[in-house]
Amino acid sequence: MLRIQPLIIVFLLLWITDASAQQPGRHPTASPGHLRAAVVKIDITPDSPKILLGYSPRLSTGIHDRLYHRIVVLDDGVTQFFLVASDICLVAPSLYDQVAARAKKELGIDPVNFWWSATHTHSAPEVGGPGLAIVMAPSIKGRYNHPVDTAYASFVEQKLIEGMAAARKKLVPARLGMGWGYAEANINRRAWDTDGIARGGMNPDGTVDRKIGLIRLDKMDGSPLALLANYSMHGTVMGPGSTVISADAPGIVSEYVEEKTGAPMLYLNGAAGNMASIYCVYPSPEAGHLDQFKVLLGDKILEANRGIAATIDSVQLQAGALTIETPRKEKLDWPADLASYTRPIDTAKNMVLLPVRFLQFNKELALWSAPLELFCEISGAIRERSPFKYTFYYGYTNGWLGYMFTEEEFKHKGYEVENVSPYTVSVERDFTEPIVQYLNGRSISPVAATQKVHPKKTKRP
Which residues does 16 contact at the CB level (< 8 Å), separation at least 6? Predict the structure, then answer.
């Protein structure tokens, strides 16, 4: 049995109580249970060449398409929740913590109510320091042998805080719709060789998650306010030979859908750890057929949007979190700025502390997020065991703590397992079971938001 103990010191994480209604900016006439929402779109494209993140460092030589923060705020009269999708590759959890602390100080927003997701484009500038990457394999660590661009990171942070403040001022009564879609814009990227080792490539026989999870926000007159589209796909249409700034396929799709609907769309990447774009690592947007993703994925999102027949304005939001512990690879160093994400258990063994967040809409929709490049088998299994009609996983959220693989894929080694993950073979079980338990009942309990979950202490055969 998993042992679940009260959390003594990690975060102060609570289901939202009446005290949250005193947050600055809350409308005095907000009616509990009736949804209000707003969305803003803030340009964060740099005006000078920048080091791009995603492959070996390379200096940008131009701009193919622009980068944005897209920010949605939801308010049910008791809980006010902010969700951000940014056209960047990754940020360290320590940078998220810094921005979250500032949002709490300046805007009164509790960190449990603020999720910052990266779309994971590999053609956007670095934002902040390397975080966990600095202790990874030498080939990964070597990507950061240059100064951190603190000016651009500060610019991105300031625009995010300004956007959150602006979104709060625009809240209007809204209606909520949910639905599923399907698109074949991705493919498994772990191709097994004859020796059984996984190498980067295309694996049409590999597990793939092609579901689109869609949330629609409408104004009360039925006009569109925003779309949130959840799909698992690396932002790697353009490869290491490309030096133009771009939001890659997630951004191209977002812009296309926005043109068709007249409302901003947040691309919330899913369990993309082993999901590549169907066209991958090309030297230019043209060679990578980047515009074709408007059809491959954009039109499928629009089709799913048309399939949402009913919307509601009576919505109760419940936000919560738990921290899951799992063993860290032996002899793996740890960055000083991520000290709060690890715990020693003796002189030779350490645990990784994984923060998982949840947002529940009534009894029908559950969102959960983690700072991970999750293999799609894990999110798919959790979705299948969830009691909710709709369960969406948002990856690359609130930082990055490496790839999380399955026990089966651990056997096949490869880049994701050996080079860019701090976890051991037990991580799939350590991670999956607490989340399934949380969704199956604990997500409606105040106690569940103040738990630390320890892995079962058993010897492996």
Answer: 78, 79, 113, 317, 318, 319
- Give all strands of the β-sheet with 80-86 in edge-to-edge order: 114-118, 80-86, 68-75, 36-43, 172-182, 211-219, 224-231, 265-269
Per-residue model confidence (pLDDT) at position 443 = 41
Tokens of residue 6, six digits: 């009260």
Which alpha helices (DSSP H) does 286-385 contain, by range? 293, 299-306, 376-385
Q: Using one digit for the tens of pLDDT, what is the confidence trace for 395-417?
A: 999 999 999 999 999 999 999 99
Tokens 């959890």 belong to which residue? 93
Task: Work out the pLDDT band at 3, boundaries 50, 70, 90.
Answer: very low
**350-361 and 365-369 beta bridge pairing:** antiparallel
Plot region of 188 (φ>0 → left; ψ -120 to 50 → alpha; else → beta): beta
Question: What are the angstrom distances between the C-alpha of 351 and each of 10, 330, 355, 378?
Answer: 14, 10, 13, 20
Lay out the sheet containing 198-203: strands in order across: 198-203, 186-192, 275-277
**Domain extent listing, the chain:** 3-15+318-454
Provide the Cα torsion 161, 81, 381, 212; round to 10°: -80
H/E stretch holding 344? strand 342-344
Amino acid at 133: A
